[in-house]
Amino acid sequence: MFKIRTLVTALALVSSISVASAWETLPSTAPAPADNPTTAEKVELGKMLYHDPRLSSTGTVSCASCHNTMLGGDDNRPNSMGVNGQTGGRGAPTVWNSAFNAVQFWDGRAPSLEAQAAGPVTNPIEMGMKSWDDVVDRLKSIHGYHVAFEKAFGGDAITKDNATKAIAAYERTLITPNSPYDKYVSGDKSALTDQQVRGMNKVAELGCTGCHSGPAFNGPGMFQKFPIHSNAFYAAKYHFKNDKGLAEVTKNADDENMWKVPTLRNIAVTAPYFHNGIVKTLEEAVTVMAKVQLDKDLSKEEVADIVAFLNGLTGEFPKQAMPTLPPTPGTTFN
Amino acid sequence: MFKIRTLVTALALVSSISVASAWETLPSTAPAPADNPTTAEKVELGKMLYHDPRLSSTGTVSCASCHNTMLGGDDNRPNSMGVNGQTGGRGAPTVWNSAFNAVQFWDGRAPSLEAQAAGPVTNPIEMGMKSWDDVVDRLKSIHGYHVAFEKAFGGDAITKDNATKAIAAYERTLITPNSPYDKYVSGDKSALTDQQVRGMNKVAELGCTGCHSGPAFNGPGMFQKFPIHSNAFYAAKYHFKNDKGLAEVTKNADDENMWKVPTLRNIAVTAPYFHNGIVKTLEEAVTVMAKVQLDKDLSKEEVADIVAFLNGLTGEFPKQAMPTLPPTPGTTFN
User: What is the pTM of this model?
Assistant: First the structure.
């Protein structure tokens, strides 16, 4: 927690400085930590684990249930639905391009994809497994996983650490390149419409890029207060402050309503919006953001231009092969 | 209903005749009805619809949630879990090779894959949509589905009829060839072990093939009474008769405990067993079947031999590409 706190303080300073951001394209590969280099074998194993509902107590919820790789990487719901129909208070962030987040979860409590992957599996309202020991026991009883872990890590390799490493390695491959924006920035001036270019300039002019810049539009700071400006109308309508964000983890008053700055990549296909998923349309999300973060009232035309630009941030979702999940011949967990 | 009744009567007669069955291999393609010939465009659309959780009220349950194409075509649960964590009283039959079932659902109430596909979507404890009109409205609001339906059917084509036709066309491609059994029957005598061959002969000798023969081991009759022989021990333990099967549909006493004869293809990877999914292991399922259907007590060795043979019915699950589901830019249903 101490580390997060220091980070937040440092970055709150950075992110309060308005930066004249250069427009950057999305890298085609994501950096991996030194102790978890990306390999084809790990990615293949990670894809299996990511899509395997047997990592949940009921056998019905996989990582992909809420972070759907066939959709925009989320579930298009205000809150996700875990085992036995349970729901929490936050929406599922998209898994696409999550490799470019410096921290994970809405409250940024996980410093890596590896750390994030460990969380939902044993969360009682998400995947509901009692413990990672139980998860490892399950995996160890599936012959095909012995083979896949051995290929990825060598030796007797079914552990929590390796399972989360494999999932993270797979997630690092979930990148959506070649959005109209990327093509435009790379020199194809026909890739964005005039309206989209107006929106792009407006985004910079208003100061949205103070927090949403860089290749994934989620930096330079990792955390930001939301909402910054009190607004009685939106407070009553959307009760954004009910969830204290990072402070729910650190129990530190200074962290109240501090949130990870989410990527704007594919924002058009990941409705509904905000940590509590309470805003259903991108138009309203843009209007709200301008008001509560920048204290600005946008015209209908400005909102339309910005939304048009944000639509230009939808990338190409690479074709993937479905994993074949290894069976448990003659028996079942559930 | 009248049609089903006539069919049942006719087939109950047929299936009571012990047939000296020839061992047949699985066809590589499934027959399609005259009004729904299989085309690549329909299969592609059907695959999208089959995997789209937005066909459920909560946006969390797709056909694939319970009939998982990454697993053995089911969910390995005694009963499936629909929207909001609801469960019913029956297990999900496998979708793999379902094209070779003459009738669909455990109680055989649907005469085709097309008819089956229409059911779960509006079942309140499964996918929970209020009506197919609502489903069609949803699909019509997704641009990508207009494109895909037009490719598959031409013109203004988003209808319930076409949606279920596309899903059925996709399901007809879900065939698992080249099981050890198929290789053996095709001449590769090394494809089954000696134990598996003993089990195969035992299956014929006991009379299992009276109901479970043909390429999918689910004919010649479509329906069979289960259990046939009363057994106080199993009645108390597994209460198979609580669910009246076809009689729940026809309300006809003669149909009580009549069930579609399920395929034995991939039976080893589709635990748990029976309509109520109450038997967790294949060993126990074989023991129970011999007793309540054939009134025979099998030795431990006989059960092991038959289970070994049934493991030889696990086919090759063809690699599939994941569909990319068309987005709803800037908004969401849920």
Answer: 0.94
